[in-house]
Amino acid sequence: MPKLWNDSVEAHRRAVRDATLDTTAALVAEHGLRSVTMSQIAEKTGIGRATLYKYFSGVEAILAAWHERQIAGHLARLVEVRDKAGGAAERLEAVLEAYAQSSRTGHGTELAALLHRGEHVVRAEAQLRDLIRDLIAAAAKTGELRDDVAPDELASYCLHALAAAGSLPSDAAVRRLVAVTVDGLRPERR
């Protein structure tokens, strides 16, 4: 099979998948999780139901794939933020703020319960913890952050502290939460 044919088939599959993910997310946002059917998704995307079932077993499988794509995008964004910031502590603070701000945009309770289970979430949480741990370790080496507590422990502390961002009323409140969190990472003043 010529390479061009393989490339175009793969591009077609990606386009079908992306259209399905985007359409399903929009339908769920508009109508609610329980009211969306595979027939609605097929009709809205212009993809036959039989073809749709070749890609996904049902609405929940589509939403899980959509969520996995969203998480991958968030992690990529955090890496971009890290790479644009200056010193070690500045990189950490920029990543923590970007993470906390993104935590403010959540899903409804029922949708969140569905999406926040599964191996893709566990993998993403580990990647996030590793990213923050590495930033903390780098800043501790430069003396900008404390080195008397293991970076893994401090990363866990940061993630738990920033979980509060989801209930904060404004970006300014999130920035204050990040500032308080980062202050807790600074070395003791003697």
List keywords for this structure.
single chain, mainly alpha, Arc Repressor Mutant, subunit A, Tetracycline Repressor, domain 2, 9 helices, 74% helix, 0% strand
Give a short synopsis of this structure.
The protein is mainly alpha-helical and 190 residues long. It is 74% helix and 0% strand.
What would your notes on this structure say?
The protein has nine helices and no strands. The protein is mostly helical. It has two domains: about 1-55, Homeodomain-like (Arc Repressor Mutant, subunit A, Orthogonal Bundle), CATH 1.10.10; about 60-190, Tetracycline Repressor, domain 2 (Orthogonal Bundle), CATH 1.10.357.10. The mean pLDDT is about 90.
**How much helical structure, as a percent, in the residues?**
over 70%
Strand-residue proportion? under 5%
Mean pLDDT: 88
Rg of Cα set: 21 Å
